[in-house]
Amino acid sequence: MRLTDKTMYARVLAGDADYNGRFFTGVLTTGIYCLPSCKARKPKAENVRFFPTCEAARAFGLRACLKCHPDDFARGADPVLESIETLVAEIRATPSAFPDVPTIVRRSGFGSTRLFELFRQHYHTTPADLLLTARLTTARSLLTQTSRPLASIAADSGFESLSVFHDHFRRLTGLTPAGFRQLPKQNTFTLTLPENYPLNYLRRALSRDSDSITEKLEGDSYTTALRLADDSPALLTLALSSASISVSFSLGLTHSPSTTHTLEIHRLVTALLGLDQDARAFARLAKKLGLTRLVKNREELRIVQTPSIYDGLLWSIIGQQINLPFARLLRTRLIQLCGTPLAENLYALPTPATVAKLTPADLLPLQFSRQKADYVIAISRLIATGQLDLTALPAMSATRAERTLLAIRGLGPWSVNYVMIRSLGFADCVPYGDTGVTSGLQSLLKLDTRPDLDATRRLMTPFSPYRSLATAHLWQLNQPIP
């Protein structure tokens, strides 16, 4: 798109962060220059001049905005983000040092309102929810690495009482603390589901591809082939019921289950079930907005997470600009080419190192376009060589994860937001341009036409900080009730 003044001003009015760095906005009446995404009051067109660089804006006599910090963005620095990331690292390291949210506010140096805004923007959560997650992470570590009493673990993790610890732990992990402690000793366990969990929607998600060679649903039995963090292939089986999910797994013939494997399987299953997603809070927000229809009969709907981040990345690249059945066919052919066959005619996803050894010539006969083949192989090489560390992404701020992924050739805003929703579990993302989202908004709000990009941004804003769940509900809105 040619960057005319009209185009750039439209991007300023839209607050479009995708254009940050492509130009800078000078506001003649205030004497400042900003990023296109700046949250300050929008200037009138006649008071604006655009500059290709910060240096050009300063040469014109303007000074940098203190709200969006364009100079920091231009040189790759972001001191506000870095200060929040440092604070979050401290909370995660020693959650017991932060007995409550006011302590976090005082430590941050920001005002309460500003801090809550920064946590929503960069971590898609509130300080209270991030603190709770940090406490649970610490508790999980202590439960599996020590034999200390539960009351001691609760206190050292920062919980005010054993009962509060027990309630939160069971709600977000599907197990009691004592049950979680037993996990390393077994490769079968049962997770308790939240009340009114929409099992039929889970079934729909697990059976979306009837020809899949990585998963199958037969009645209430779901089986999938996985690739674990140490590259071990695993076969996972879930027995579904309205109140609980029974889990069992086995590894390939050359691998024996370990404590690490069992804990990873538990993490994968809880992510698949979306137990850590605040479905009820989103349902309350939708009703408050007068949009009860959006969540009717599925208030506990969760986003089913992909088995691995690599799986999500492959889906996001393969699925670009082609129809869903063809995307599934390409994925199947790639897995048949270099995946690992397991029992029950299922294949585990290939490792990034295996795909990295391919050339585009290997994928062209499978009907991959040359560009799509290049992207799949290139990102696999980044992962295999350690230039892209998938294990680091979930712990990053949403802002840092997004910037990391957007810097990779072949990943645009739609792909990155898809991965952040489906594979990283960030709560406030929208895959802008997604037809399921725009058609859902058109139906929900009774619009004459599907909203364009700017209208979609505006219409999705009220759902923050739960836009990922809003996206999931919009995907389901025009589908028959399962």
Automatic annotation (TrEMBL):
Answer yes or no on keyword Zinc: yes
Show the SUPFAM superfamilies listed in the entry: Ada DNA repair protein, N-terminal domain (N-Ada 10), DNA-glycosylase, Homeodomain-like
Q: Which cofactor does it need?
A: Zn(2+)
GO BP annotations, alphabetical order: base-excision repair, AP site formation; DNA alkylation repair; methylation
Catalyzes what?
A: Hydrolysis of alkylated DNA, releasing 3-methyladenine, 3-methylguanine, 7-methylguanine and 7-methyladenine
Record domain HTH araC/xylS-type: where: 85-183
Quote the EC number: 3.2.2.21
Q: Which UniProt keywords apply?
A: Activator, DNA damage, DNA repair, DNA-binding, Metal-binding, Methyltransferase, Transcription, Transcription regulation, Transferase, Zinc
GO molecular function (one) = methyltransferase activity
Q: Which SMART domains match?
A: ENDO3c, HTH_ARAC
Recorded GO CC terms: cytoplasm; protein-DNA complex
The record's family statement is:
Belongs to the alkylbase DNA glycosidase AlkA family.
Task: Please state what the protein is called.
Answer: DNA-3-methyladenine glycosylase II
Origin organism lineage: Bacteria, Pseudomonadati, Verrucomicrobiota, Opitutia, Opitutales
